[in-house]
Amino acid sequence: MNINRRCALALAGALVLGGATGALAADKKITLGFAQVGAESEWRTANTQSIKTSAAKAGITLKFSDAQQKQENQIKAIRSFIAQKVDVIAFSPVVESGWETVLKEAKAAKIPVILTDRAVSVKDDSLYVTFMGSDFVEEGRRAGHWLLDNYKAQGNVNIVELQGTVGSAPAIDRKKGFEEVIKAQPRFKVIRSQTGDFTRAKGKEVMEAFLKAEGKKINVLYAHNDDMAIGAIQAIEEAGMKPGKDITIISVDGVKGAFEAMIAGKLNVTVECNPLLGPQLMDAVRDVVAGKSLPKRIVTKESVYPQSVAAKEFPNRKY
Ligand code: AHR
Q1: By C-alpha distance, which of 19, 30, 66 is closest to 283?
Q2: Can you tell me the mean pLDDT for 225-253?
């Protein structure tokens, strides 16, 4: 056999082998470990549902863990995914800080990590592949702009703020974006600001305390999510006031419960935060396993829904 023929055969063999490897990689059953924040809100329920149904549709084996809003539970879940040698780990971090050690462990085990919904604050961004989710600062800005553009009464405007979970990216960023915008008009002042932990029960409890302390001085409520706003609406009604009229209410998420409250005239506006991240996450998981590179940041597209469009938009809402 001459040298050229030998080379051609070797090349053909390599191509066949390469093809077989490619086919194997494509057929390989992918296992994804997902560490969820908890089940604190209507938003979170929709997010979990989206991840579970999209994994099933994509034929990806999902190992799902619910951290019940505790960082230590999420860290435990991530360590267990590493021990089980899953192909990819994804998680929505309860809080922003304190992730370096466990992310280094995942990197040492060569397991790629995808962040969904919430960001982490780490010095080395090679500890995760990509972060997909909303721009929370922009959501806060949208809430602030809506207020400045729509609050017509003259004089000082007293705002109370229900913050999300302390130390979480959406609580930090939504506060920041809102403040950034309202400072342009000093008559708008946040007179009280406290966490309601993104839950209805806590939102109600903290609003009751705000009402006790400030009563009729409160003009506006800015809630970092719809669930806290819905809890607060109950507190306002129990205090004998009209939510959406006596107190203007702005919240974030755009869940069905918020649309119902807007249709009933009890909530003035909701800034959308889309929880349906499942399909995008499964695409990213497949791409990472296939060795494709992903953008470091994938931002979700979102809108603002005022009360005036609620009835028309309600039938189109998917969560
Ligand atoms: O991280 C997204 C936030 O978390 C949602 O706005 C809130 O409802 C959820 O609990």
Answers
A1: 30
A2: 98
